[in-house]
Structure formats: structure tokens, C-alpha cells
Amino acid sequence: MFYRPSEGHGLPHNPFNAIVTPRPIGWISSRDKAGHNNLAPYSFFNAVAYVPPQVMFASTGTKADVDGTKDSVANIRETGEFCVNVVEYAARDVMNASSATLPHDVDEFEHAGVEKAECELINCARVANAPANFECKVTQIVRLEGEANFAVFGEVIGVHMRDDCIVNGRFDVTTFQPLSRMGYRDYTVVREVFELLRPDD
């Protein structure tokens, strides 16, 4: 099968997200200048550079009470800061609850029953007891093709790691089993890993 996205795929559901899988979930927390906290999961997320360490997430769509985007991007535009919280399998239900479309001034931490803690270097809440958190300063916000598509890039200036996730000096994802996004309404979980040596190692 071949299709041109501009002409449609002819299937019952869009296959694009199902092809690009699995995708890590960036559980993005932010705070506006008025002090309202926001927490929302984004599956267009990844690390993009080592030195300095940098991450990105992309937001698509709008909310009626935010000008041309969603709460996360609106908050980050105001403050230049955000936190990425790693999602473990055990947090799948509260992560999903935090994806609800709520008024801008509603705190998703409280709505979903997620315990929060303050970040160390930025004025933002983070998911307490998450396997890891990245405190980020924005480097750029890029407007992408299409309506209300934005990519947010940030430099990681502080890293939290839960002590039980560090095994023999390595951050061991099998200790918490990362949740990943698939296509449609599907998710997957990392329960086992294997190692491949690069040819030049």
C-alpha cells in the first residue's frame, strides 16, 4: 500500500502514529506566571543532543481558553521553563487522567491525583517519585507546518533520578518499566532489554 498523506489513507484510522512506534512519553509539567500548574503527556518527545543535554516535545492542536496552542506551550512561552517527567508503567492511569482537556487554571496534578514536588533550579512543579525528571530551560520554540503545531526545545539543566532506579552505577529502566506510546489508543511497556555492540566499539 502507498498513500499520499495530503490525499488521505482510506483506512478507518490514521496509520501514521502506529508506524512511528514505540514513542517515549514526555510528561511535561509547566507553570504560568500566575502560578497555575499544568501537567500533560506528549508522545512527540525525545532527547536530541548530548552536550549540552537537550530534549524536545511537539504540541499539536489548540484549546479554546488558550491563544493558538495548548496550556503547556502557552506557559512555557511565558516563563521559558518546563520539566520532563519520566512515565513508569505504574503511573499509566494517572498519566492518562492528566491528559484530560481542562480549563487553563485547573491543576492537573490535583485533578489526576499526582503527588508534586518543587524543582530545584526552575520555578516549576515536578512529578514526585517519578523515575527521573529533567529540569529544562527553553532554547527555542519552533512553529511547524500546519495549524497550531509547535516544537519546544529545551536544555536540561538539572536531573533527578530515583535512587532505586540506579543499579550498579547505571540507570536501569527495568526497575520501573517505562511506558511508551503506540498508535491509536495503544501503549506498550519496556520489561526487558538486550545489548548490541557497535562495530567501532
From TrEMBL:
MF terms (GO), sorted A to Z: oxidoreductase activity
Coiled coil regions in record: none
InterPro entries linked to this entry: Flavin_Rdtase-like_dom (IPR002563), Split_barrel_FMN-bd (IPR012349)
UniProt superkingdom: Bacteria
Residues annotated as domain Flavin reductase like: 18-173
Broadest EC class assigned to this enzyme: oxidoreductase
Enzyme Commission (EC) number: 1.5.1.-
Keywords: Oxidoreductase
Keyword Oxidoreductase: yes
Protein's UniProt name: Flavin reductase family protein
